[in-house]
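Hi R.,

As promised on Friday, here is the backbone we talked about, encoded as structure tokens. Could you run it through your design pipeline when you get a chance and send me back a sequence?
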């Protein structure tokens, strides 16, 4: 009711049929009526993230390393000298993240990104070095917490520049897929394990035991 028909049409056209973009454009207009509209949805999200305090921006970037879900303890693992609790409250208030009704880890409340675009925009703000370090720290935290999905650990270790550790978990993931008769997933994970082992070898790391490599080829054969 606060907008005339021309303004409504302008915002609707700029959203290009994307409900999230429409919501963000309304927020942008409410915060700064008459301001030029961002040309892309990602630019729109970036504008919104720029309005956050430095602690909240740091915590949001850390959360993006884990994917769509993160946990306060995990965030404290990745950021230091930051008011993580206060940042989380601001992110909840700004409706960038929400509290999940249940958590993967009972001892840790779970936070979820409300939109994948927000997660993508936050992740894009990390430098390649920060991403590698973040994934390495994320893998360590998840491993200590008893992450049940080996492929999740493998992915973080690989992105963190530790292909040897990634290979161990890809092998576990391949066996898990075989146990569930998911042969396509087993093949993909075994191949990823072998590629990680090859990368380790090229880097001059001691070669893997033949038994491990043989088990991976057996998984491919099955």
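Update: got your reply. Pasting your designed sequence below so it's all in one thread:
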């Amino acid at each position: 009711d606060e907008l005339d028909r021309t303004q409504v049409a302008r915002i609707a056209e700029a959203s290009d049929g994307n409900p999230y973009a429409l919501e963000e454009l309304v927020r942008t207009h409410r915060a700064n009526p008459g301001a030029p509209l961002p040309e892309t949805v990602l630019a729109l999200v970036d504008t919104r993230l720029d309005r956050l305090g430095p602690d909240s921006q740091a915590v949001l970037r850390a959360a993006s390393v884990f994917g769509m879900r993160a946990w306060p303890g995990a965030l404290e693992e990745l950021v230091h000298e930051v008011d993580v609790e206060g940042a989380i409250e601001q992110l909840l208030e700004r409706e960038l993240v929400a509290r999940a009704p249940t958590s993967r880890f009972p001892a840790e409340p779970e936070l979820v990104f409300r939109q994948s675009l927000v997660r993508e925009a936050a992740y894009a703000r990390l430098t390649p070095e920060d991403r590698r370090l973040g994934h390495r720290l994320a893998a360590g935290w998840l491993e200590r917490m008893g992450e049940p999905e080996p492929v999740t650990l493998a992915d973080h270790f690989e992105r963190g520049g530790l292909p040897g550790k990634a290979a161990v978990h890809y092998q576990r993931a391949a066996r898990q897929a075989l146990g569930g008769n998911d042969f396509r997933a087993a093949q993909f994970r075994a191949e990823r394990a072998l590629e990680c082992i090859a990368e380790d070898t090229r880097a001059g790391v001691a070669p893997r035991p033949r038994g491990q490599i043989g088990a991976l080829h057996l998984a491919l054969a099955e």
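One thing I noticed while checking it: Strands lie at 69-70, 97-99, 111-113.

Thanks again,
M.
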